[in-house]
Amino acid sequence: MEARNWSRHIVEKDVACLVEGAREQVFLYDLSMGGCMFEMACDRDMRERSATLDLQGQGIVQGQVVWQVGRCIGMRFEALISQAVVRRLGFTPPVEDFLGCPVREPSGHAPQPLL
């Protein structure tokens, strides 16, 4: 498996995607300077195709689909995008101390005290 060269940032936003003249909304899961992962609204073979994403006023980026699993697509950009654009669109979730988290039942509720 190929190692990633850039850190990914969670985005979780709808963006416009243009493939072979057809424009549709896709759900952008994550973004890095060199690529992204998004989900198409419908099943469609995208492997090895070119695509263009409109990054919500942060620029237009072109790339090549490098993998596909179902409707999820991995795309490598033709040219790197700015780290500032990645940070503006995405976020890095805060690191939480696992041991400091309250105990919860699988249902999400606090456990009842034992009698």
TrEMBL record:
InterPro entries: PilZ_domain (IPR009875)
Gene Ontology molecular function: cyclic-di-GMP binding
PilZ domain sequence ranges: 4-80
Stated name of the protein: PilZ domain-containing protein
